[in-house]
């Protein structure tokens, strides 16, 4: 966090000069304001427009969906909105056979991402940081899945998993009647099958994050620990990894976000059939399309919002506290 | 990478660059808003020589077929048809907001509950005057399909296609199979096919709607058309013994269905029929799209789903029907009426069928001489039907079928033993959905 203060003070120092400089130039014309009209207009536009857009597109919509969560609405005319209190939530918690599995799958998604691709990404980053040959080639190869859109990843992997013509079943001969392995439809398998695809992508993402973190580790630290006689593992465990703390925070936040917003991959893969239900998919299925259960879908979205807040608020509190200390 | 550094994430003071970026974004969004609002309608003022049509015919074949119809209409009436084509699925998903905004004068839609729903919400205009002209072209069953709940006409049908069990004539000939007409014969045939190392019934339910079709067939064969209507309308209970019986019958033939159905698309399932690995396949006539080879196509045939209860025989045919509706406030009502009258004429249907050989005309007046053997059979099946149904997701509330029935039937296919709790859950969810307006 120490890097913060210099940046800010630099900016603070950089802003006044243009402001004070221009009135001086214009002073003979009679303007004695700190900022010219044009400056103020420009600033007003620059600050105002994004504010209006932010409020309209983020806050108003978020609050509207919270309000809609307590109503039932088919999306046709505003007069068809009916207040139903907590009915949507009651229905969701007690009657919807897909809701609790969806919550569970979002959690599983996060746990798997943090347990498998994250350490793997760190491992790859450490290897690539050793200045081995063709490092750039490996970096590109591992990072490539991150560049590809999730929808494309979903499409590619459902071809791999296709029960009849897919790569896996063809290789192991499981595409004959009686031997089918239904990677896409079997609820005991499909979540794991998709998580392989998700991890495949996430590993590259984590690798790049850690690689950036490792590049900023002071080489003097390595030298010092080498002089103290620490072997490679000890150096990593006791010296390098602790200095990666800021990166770890980012990794944690990014992974939580990935787990909560997981949608496109699964939607393309099997539209969230049994075994792969996710909150985001339930929201979409209920709101978008002809079904238009807007109130009910909003209730699911609110649950997703509450979960996100439960994760993000402690993080923000911790960050602010640290900043204040600094 | 700058934004990913720890200081980047917690940075509070916006730099000038982010402000500028925001401005750029705002400009892009600002430019986007008028574009979005322009998507709704064509925006042309009432021009007596132009009718606008909102079309979901985004595939090449139907798009060309409709263009031919509109060209013929122009030479006949002098009215230009301005078509606004959208992707088929997108059109369907946006239908609510589309009809509430500034819809085109005439739009493509489906018969059945899905049509009645928008008619009841006042989002469509009744077309009784059109039917005074075209009424004689259609059989009674089609007339019933085109009416709203208030008894007025809201729909002009163009084409239809039946759901049936498809098979390859050569496979049946080689193995000496005969077409089953009763449930017992059907089950016996399934057993025989399994002995002959065939997959008796090809099946793919990855898209979640094909299973709705299987349930429909078993349900109206076992419980009759009236019960189907009551069940779809949310009046009959899903915990009714009749529903349970339909599922028991389904569970009886489920072992003869292709394995791993939930992971397979209908196209892949159809390919097993094409490659003669499967003996039968229950689907709509659009299965013919997968038979690209002319000889294979010749070999394709179908039969009606076998009788279960003699009281109902094979009197009901599931025949989804596509056609046109008139939007709530058409800009050129006279022109739109003329267009609908033309679309309800045998001439328009004949033009359409020339390009799309997988469907048949909704009108009984259309010329059937150019039909393929398969089309002729489909036509006979539909015109001989006592009752026509649409399809579960067209006969019932789309919110119920898509959020409750589709996942429920996928679950049943995988685990038929859990049927009791499944039906209780369906009924509970149904009550909430049908209670809301």
Automatic annotation (TrEMBL), chain B:
UniProt superkingdom: Bacteria
Protein name according to UniProt: ABC transporter substrate-binding protein
Organism: Streptomyces aurantiogriseus
Xref: Pfam families: SBP_bac_1 (PF01547)
Cited InterPro entries: Bact_solute-bd_prot1, SBP, TAT_signal
Lineage of source species: Bacteria, Bacillati, Actinomycetota, Actinomycetes, Kitasatosporales
